[in-house]
Amino acid sequence: MTAVPSPRPYRFDLTVALTYYLPYTSGLTEVARTVAEGLAARGRRVAVVASRHDPSSPVRERVNGVDVFRAPVAARIGRGVLSPGFLPLAARLARASRAVNIHLPMLEAGPLALLTGRTPVITTHHDDVWLPPGRLAGLQVRGVDASVATALRRSAAVVVNNADHAEHSRHWPLMRDRLAVIAPPCRLREPAPATFRDGPGPHFGFLGRIAPEKGLHHLVDAFRAIGDPTARLLIAGDYSKVAGGSVVGALRERASGDRRIRFTGFLTDRQVSEFYASLDVFALPSVAEESFGISQTEAMMTGVPSVAADAPGMRVPVTSTGFGRLFPPGDAAALAAALLAAAAFSPRQRAEGATATRARYSTDNCLDRFDALLGRLGADDRVTA
Known about the structure:
By secondary structure, the protein is of the alpha/beta class. It folds into 2 domains: about 10-185 and about 365-375, Rossmann fold (3-Layer(aba) Sandwich), CATH 3.40.50.2000; about 205-360, Rossmann fold, CATH 3.40.50. The chain is built from 14 helices and 16 strands. Helix 1 (about 25-40) crosses helix 14 (about 365-375). The longest helix is centred in the middle third of the chain and has 18 residues, at about 135-155. Keywords: Glycosyltransferase, Transferase.
């Protein structure tokens, strides 16, 4: 008599794998966290595996319904970390899951995708890896690209924030036949007091990592070309724990003591709402590709127009809603003109822009699409505790 094989012992509905997770903050981390916690709130059993980049973080904990596993870090290499235990831990959890979601770019992505066994692989392609010029930068980029390519070939689906960015990726030929376009989750912030305002003039702002690829030197130059003494530039974001190093020192030197420019540092969740409420215009001047720009979109949802570099991905929230202005990447003069044009938007334009952005981008829209994707891949029968 032939034995009937026992059902596969799934432990999780989904395992999410990425290099950095809480307490690190970045757009990629926030996408992973929001999707993981959102799916957990909908009844899915979700695990996250990441590096233990902060030694004070526990090796394992449960955060908002998500089981978080962290592998110790042996060394740091530029923006990346060397964590020998990450790959075997992630592979073990992936094989015990109905699906695995690997966030790209990641050096371990290729080997992990090959070690997942029968578990369907979903890769989330945020952007192509970018590094500042350096002696080993080219070698590092080629190594990550090769790993990413392996993971994409092994993927049952490739999630991208928008087709505009995906079509301009170095990996587009490997993605096009398995694409799942799911805009990242954007949170509608509660109304808050404008505690960061300082005077009656136009307030321009940026929120994100204070890193080289964000093009903040162009933003400082553009703002300094605006002669209005009542204008303000608020640059918000952590500059003490930026993977690969912060550029806040160079930016302060570039500001040359202009007292209209303020660096706020890290903002709490409540302060982020107050920050958006204090702005007349949000700026996204990145010089490297951004696949979307969650901060700009969240600002737009509150009625703040965005001025973004006219580059694949980051221009999509503006082009899809008409709520903002675009400028040629790296052109400080054009950026200054765009900032002033957006600052002149009327209350009606701001209200209509906020409505259009909220209708198109929301956390629920993202979770609905991700849930449907898991269903198509056979991960619909939820794991019960």
